[in-house]
From TrEMBL:
The chain crosses the membrane at residues 80-100. It catalyses: an alpha-D-Man-(1->3)-beta-D-Man-(1->4)-beta-D-GlcNAc-(1->4)-alpha-D-GlcNAc-diphospho-di-trans,poly-cis-dolichol + GDP-alpha-D-mannose = an alpha-D-Man-(1->3)-[alpha-D-Man-(1->6)]-beta-D-Man-(1->4)-beta-D-GlcNAc-(1->4)-alpha-D-GlcNAc-diphospho-di-trans,poly-cis-dolichol + GDP + H(+); a beta-D-Man-(1->4)-beta-D-GlcNAc-(1->4)-alpha-D-GlcNAc-diphospho-di-trans,poly-cis-dolichol + GDP-alpha-D-mannose = an alpha-D-Man-(1->3)-beta-D-Man-(1->4)-beta-D-GlcNAc-(1->4)-alpha-D-GlcNAc-diphospho-di-trans,poly-cis-dolichol + GDP + H(+). This is Alpha-1,3/1,6-mannosyltransferase ALG2. It is found in: Endoplasmic reticulum membrane. Belongs to the glycosyltransferase group 1 family. The lineage of its organism: Eukaryota, Viridiplantae, Streptophyta, Embryophyta, Tracheophyta. One of its GO terms (molecular function) is GDP-Man:Man(1)GlcNAc(2)-PP-Dol alpha-1,3-mannosyltransferase activity. Keywords: Glycosyltransferase, Membrane, Transferase, Transmembrane, Transmembrane helix. Its EC number is 2.4.1.132, 2.4.1.257. It is a single-pass membrane protein.
Length: 358
């Protein structure tokens, strides 16, 4: 950046593999929106962006989205998904390198293999979104950690203004996750079946991409499990719901069930709490930092018995779910709002650039 250019007007590029409708994409979109609101020029580069299956902000004109490499394969005979993701992002990085002028700051998300290429334009800074991820970085990159190289921690956030306090609710449990096996959604079904509560229901919603074999297979596996457990008539599956539909589901549910184990952060619990809903989650990974046990929800061992026991408490006393939901909302407003996130991210980005100028 030329000397004398205002630090409040940085040109920022964000590179992300696939702008779908998952938690990682929600974080990137929120980051772009917040940085743009602070006066920066933000540009997202991706290997895929389906305008019929994306967050509204990516097509509203708040910031441009440029796609390179959508013709490249996502897999080779349903194998080598990670390698294909690396190659697609490398192609995006090379296009940025040769077709675009230098950016003041580049944020590389998820696929770190592009960093050496991007450094040809601008040096990079490692950033993580919670302490669990930071500890994973330390355990993985032992030599870097020994040299005192530490990633900065910046928690993701949600726009709390999109959620209004619900006036009523149903005895419905809600699970929101991508339809991927690592999300452990079968835990929610098995725990729900153990309730033996005919008045309760379970909604399983989340990101679904028909191009992905795992998404298709896992959805069928979950439906088959519901049949075997004898609760298929009280479980509803919703694929790739819009933001408006998701917010309506959150508003009407009793609480949110979050089943991934060792998730690096997980935006769903924060969104649920912002919507005045308590969360039942695994006692590992990101939820240890976002959910206050016995205050804004329950943290449980990842077994059906424990999850079912926590769910039964809310069936027995729905008013307790309301009380915890109000406390959850306050917790998110204080710690995870987009305003707090945006200020921290902006300060971090500006400080990085100022350090480079110096």
């Amino acid at each position: 950046m030329a000397k004398g250019k205002a630090t409040s007007e940085l040109n920022i590029a964000i590179i992300h593999p696939d702008l779908g409708i998952g938690g990682a994409e929600r974080l990137i979109v929120d980051a772009a929106v917040e940085l743009a609101s602070h006066g920066h020029k933000v540009h997202i580069f991706a290997a895929h962006h389906d305008k019929n299956r994306c967050f509204e902000e990516t097509i509203s004109g708040t910031f441009p989205v440029t796609v390179y490499g959508s013709f490249l394969p996502r897999h080779v005979f349903y194998r080598l998904h990670a390698l294909c993701a690396y190659l697609r992002c490398l192609f995006v990085a090379f296009c940025m390198l040769f077709l675009w002028p230098s950016f003041d700051v580049i944020i590389a998300d998820q696929v770190s293999v592009v960093i050496p290429i991007l450094k040809l334009k601008r040096s990079a800074k490692v950033e993580t979104n919670n302490n669990f991820t930071a500890s994973t970085f330390a355990n993985t990159f032992i030599h870097l950690n020994a040299k005192g190289i530490r990633p900065a921690v910046l928690y993701p956030a949600v726009n709390v203004d999109q959620f209004k306090e619900p006036s009523s609710f149903k005895l419905n449990f809600l699970s929101i996750n991508r339809f991927e096996r690592k999300k452990n959604i079968e835990l929610a079904i098995s725990a729900f079946a153990m309730l033996h509560s005919p008045e309760a229901s379970l909604t399983i919603a989340g990101g679904f991409d028909i191009r992905l074999k795992e998404n298709v297979e896992y959805l069928e596996e979950l439906k088959a499990l519901a049949e075997r457990e004898g609760v298929s008539n009280r479980i509803r599956f919703i694929t790739s719901c819009s933001t408006t539909e998701r917010n309506a589901l959150l508003s009407e549910c009793l609480c949110v069930i979050y089943t991934p184990k060792d998730e690096h952060f997980g935006i769903v619990p924060v969104e649920a709490m912002a919507a005045y809903k308590p969360v039942i989650a695994c006692n590992s990974g990101g939820p240890l930092e976002s959910v206050k046990n016995d205050e804004t929800g329950f943290l449980c061992d990842p077994i059906p018995e424990e999850f079912s026991s926590a769910m039964a408490k809310f069936i027995k006393d729905p008013k307790e779910a309301e009380r915890m939901g109000r406390e959850a909302r306050k917790h998110v407003v204080d710690s995870f709002s987009t305003h707090t996130f945006g200020q921290s991210l902006n300060r971090y980005i500006v400080d990085i650039h100022r350090g480079k100028e110096d």
